[in-house]
Amino acid sequence: MKKTLFLLTTIISGLAYSQVGINTANPQGSFHVDGLKDNNATGVPTAVQQSNDFTVTSSGSVGIGTTVPNASAMLDVNVDALAVGSKKGFLGPKVALTSQTDGATIPSPAAGLLVYNLGTAGLGYVGYVFWNGTEWRTFNNGSLAPGTLGSITCNGVTLSPGTYTAGTPYTGTMTVPYTGGNGGVYPAQTVGPVNGLTATLAAGNFNVGSGILSYTVSGVPTASSPTLTTFALNIGGQTCSATVGAGAVIAPGELVYYHSSIPRKTTSFLLSQFLNDLPVINNTFRVDAFITAPNAFDSSGATTNFDPRLYNITTANAKVWVSEVSTHTGDSHGANLLIFPNNYAQFDDGVYLTYGRNETVTFDITTADNKWYRVYYALRIDNKSFTSAGNGNTTSDSNTLDNTLEVFVSIQRLY
After folding, report:
1. Which of 194, 209, 229, 280 has the smallest C-beta neighbourhood within 10 Å, fewest atoms?
2. Distance between CA 195 and CA 108 in Å, rounded?
3. Keyword set for this entry (predicted)?
4. Would you say residue 57 has pLDDT above 70?
5. Whether residue 262 is found in the same domain as residue 382
6. Is residue 278 a contact partner of residue 306, using CB atoms and an 8 Å limit?
7. Please, which pLDDT band fits residue 198 given cuts at 50, 70 and 90?
8. Is residue 287 part of a domain?
């Protein structure tokens, strides 16, 4: 009977004042429930008192944990006044969708409908998804369609750090470029161990078009660089043999520059006898040259005394394909070469190099792992004791002792 009287009183009060309060005689909206019945009889409840309230305003907005929902929100759930350890979250409806286009589990879903997919039916993705009018998508608008790729650019794979040592724990990142992504999802992946190393990839979405996959490579290596490690990748309908561990590599499109100087020499020599930091291609081939002295430093005539060479600095045979773009004579000493350890291949029988005449060398090489490089040599004798010959075209050298050989090399990765 008392409950009936209370309800009648509440209804009559609501009709009289156009506000209904439950557990409060001081409603703050058209409908107001004071959960703990702890609000003051007058005035605005404190934030702590509002934390257990439910309010519907005259504009139709609903506040939970607040009697003053934000004017821009139809529903404002506020837990600011709840103590740490007592705060609560929003729990949406849970469903098990059968596919990214499932329109039957929830019949005729409205665009923008939000649910939490359990991943226990055909759609394996676990998390909140929304219906965009034609399919279910992730919060970041990622497609949940199975991901596919056009190709994996295996010769563009890089590892950072680029080397590892047997017995020393290693953690690095292997980046794998791809093209033709459809924006769909790909599952988590674990490849290996190979040489004690395992490559792992977190689940995600491919880009539409080109992109990069980032694998975490970790473990205790059983081999040391430059011994290679090859991970057999199979993702997005494509396969790839990702080979890493050779050391730092030049990325596709990257151009690497080198310059150094050598004082005048009176006997013939290799550049690497005096320059220990010459560029190395693919951690395998040192870009070097043999110089015939002293004519290179002292002569102003047409003397061919610069021989470009590639040295195999590894302990294994290394195959390389050479195609010359331009040299002094266009000489070629083999296009399909197997270079033994600590041996070299020479690509011209002599290029002009004197203080009166310098020529450049350009050639392309492709390596066994299908990387394509263009190498540029521009060596010159710097005649520092310059005097004019009188015709504006040639020079003479009053003191050959101060001449230097200036070494310029650039390497561009074309593929």
Report:
1. 209
2. 53
3. Signal
4. yes
5. yes
6. no
7. very high
8. yes
- Tokens at residue 359, please? 């020529």
**Nearest CA among 376, 378, 380 for reference residue 357:** 380
7 in a structural domain: yes
Who contacts 107 (Cβ-Cβ below 8 Å, separation ≥6)? none
The answer on 366 and 319 residing in a single domain is yes
Buried b (16+ CB within 10 A) or exposed e, 111-130: eeeebebeeeeebebeeebb
Range of the domain at 101: 91-145
Contact predicate 246/281, CB 8 Å:
no
Q: What pairing do the DSSP bridges indicate for beta strands 395-397 and 386-388?
A: antiparallel
Strand bridging mode 238-244 / 304-312: unpaired
Residue that finishes a domain, picked among 77, 110, 127: 77
**DSSP category for residue 358:** B
DSSP letters spanning 274-342: T-TT--EETTTEEEEEEE-TTHHHH--S--EEEEEEEEE-SSS-EEEEEEEEE-SS---S-SEEEEPTT
Residue 282, pLDDT above cutoff 70: yes
The string over 78-106, giving b where at least 16 C-beta atoms fall within 10 Å of a residue's C-beta and e elsewhere, is beebeeeeeeeeeeeeebebebbebeebe
| Confidence class for position 104, pLDDT limits 50, 70, 90 | very high
pLDDT of residue 153: 83
Q: State the chain's mean pLDDT as an integer.
A: 84
How does pLDDT run across 318-328, given as a tens digit for each residue?
888 888 656 55
Residues 136 and 162 in one domain: no
**Dihedral, CA atoms, 55, 56, 62, 63, nearest 10 degrees?**
-20
Whether the bond into 187 is cis, omega within 30 of 0: no
* Per-residue pLDDT at 330: 44
Q: What is the pLDDT of residue 190?
A: 95
pLDDT > 50? residue 69: yes
- The tokens for 183 are 């924006």
Domain count, the chain: 4
| Tokens 């944990």, located at residue | 65
Task: Let me know: does 205 contact 142? Beta carbons within 8 Å.
Answer: yes
Which CATH number belongs to the domain containing residue 196 in this structure? Answer: 2.60.40.10
My answer on whether 265 and 393 are in the same domain is yes
Q: Is the backbone peptide bond immediately before 226 cis, with ω within 30 degrees of 0? A: yes
Is the four-CA dihedral 366, 371, 372, 377 of positive or negative sign?
Answer: negative
Domain assignment present for 83: no
> What strands, in cross-sheet order, belong to the sheet with 20-22?
20-22, 31-34, 53-56, 62-64, 75-77
> Among 46, 77, 108, where does a domain finish?
77
Closest by CA position to 117, among listed 137, 134, 133: 137
